[in-house]
Amino acid sequence: MNTSITSxxxxxxxxxxxxxxxxxxxxxxxxDGVLDKDGAQKLISNGDELQVRVIEVIRELSANQYADExxxxxxxxxxxxxxxxxxxxxxxxxxxxPGIGYANEKLAEQPFPPNxxxxxxxxxxxxxGKTYEEALQKALDLIKQTxxxxxxxxxxxxxxxxxxxLRAKTQKALEAIGQQQKGNDILVIPCQFGxxxxxxxxxxxxxxxxxxxxxxDPFTIACMILTHPERLQHLDDLxxxxxxxxxxxxxxxxxxxxxxxYFGGGEVRFGGRYAGGAYGRYGSSSGFLPQ
Length: 291
What we know:
Layout: H1 12-31, H2 37-45, H3 47-62, H4 86-96, E1 118-123, H5 132-146, E2 151-153, E3 164-166, H6 168-180, E4 186-192, H7 202-208, E5 213-215, H8 218-227, E6 239-241, E7 245-247, E8 257-264, E9 267-274, E10 282-284, E11 286-288
Parallel strand pairs: 2-9, 6-10
Antiparallel strand pairs: 1-4, 3-7, 4-11, 5-11, 6-8, 8-9
Helix pairs in contact: 5-8
């Protein structure tokens, strides 16, 4: 079973931060003109109910959700994947992507955060395509090319913004890392390839990720596969959930799924699945904000 992320007693700093969030919300109500004098008085008269509602929201947003969406898993990196040196990764990306620039490789000399496997080289998607969809498609095409055609996309034509979108936390993390590494076409990001969250549903994995950890999106993972082709070579290699993206599997606007990569039938495959399913074969890949 995965090692659970435990919590200790709440700190004074956390108390102050939570109080500040509530106070900031009240200040926004005043600044936005949500209340007039009569409305304010009515709210005061319903003060007990207001407190109950605030407590309910705090309980909801702080709950340990989806705790039952974890199963035992013995799947791992059967094919012998080991993270490569950052220079080897960036050189490979420049071989595959014409015109792609460089990375600040000195970042990889620093210790990587706990639970990361190593530093990974990931191009800015904007340097690969005009849209995220175009960049992802090019990365998928490269997987097919480098695997001698042994790749199948079960979601062909279904990776546009109407079906796939980045999770807000992932998008903000990538933007922050991009700002820190301004001027570089290739970002250097500490990541793990799925083992940390094996046996967890996507939404459970997201639930237990601390603030400095975020789910990896399909473009990032596709690039990680390109620089580490041995990661998926066998049916029993741990399959890779793309926890950094929401996916609408049925085209009904629900976005309750997530993309994933796996190996089957002698080829790498790309698909989408329900984010609430917990199976031993799957593990969510994630990145970490550099310390």
